[in-house]
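Q: Structure tokens for this one, please.
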Amino acid sequence: MFRFTLPLLLLAPAAHAACAATVFLTIDTGNMEPAEAMAEILRKQDVKATFFLANEKTKRGDTSLDPAWAPFWKRLADEGHAFGSHTWRHWYVRGDSGEDKVNYVEPVAKQGEALDREAFCAELKKPEEAFKAMTGRGFDGLWRAPGGKLTRRAESFAKSCGYTHVGWSPAGFSGDELPSEKFPSDALIARQLREIRDGDVLLWHLGIWSRKDPLWPKLDALITGLKAKGFCFARIPEGAAWKR
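A: Here is the predicted structure, written as tokens:
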């Protein structure tokens, strides 16, 4: 159902002496309906996350990188979270084209473009430019391919313009994109608490259009449960070395 990038963190911040293990909470943009509430959970829990930003449609009718979101992003930046690109249009990489291009496809219409290195880098840089205009700071040299769909050429293009790809761990996949009729929230959280291990990268979203019973209110319980097991939370460090 999903194509996971399986990262192994080779360079990570040292865990606090009280930590039995460290995990990395990452949050992608979404419909943004729970954005403020999720940010409050992070403040309450004193957890820093790594956010991946695309210019996605929101429940309130604008887009996630519209200037109206500047106070939200500026506060997160001031609070010390990390940030990376999730591409501007949130399309999918669907294989390579010819000798020097990447197929970049709108996931619903199935129509897209063949991007060369310069155009692909522009797609990654545009969210950073919008973010910097709102917050005064850029990204942390990181990006995540929408849907985790990646080719070696896309990864190489991104590295050439300063972005290291970050996937997620299978155990860290929250399931917030899955239908709640088949995957109840309590069951998804219980699975994560059983399976998450040291060094895992957790994947959540700032709102999912399709899920009827949102998972995001359970983020607080997940963080509390992981802390009780001795886990600490860290940002993905800038320039971290990753192995797929």
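A few notes: The chain has one domain: 18-243. Residues 1-15, 238-244 have pLDDT under 50 and may be disordered.
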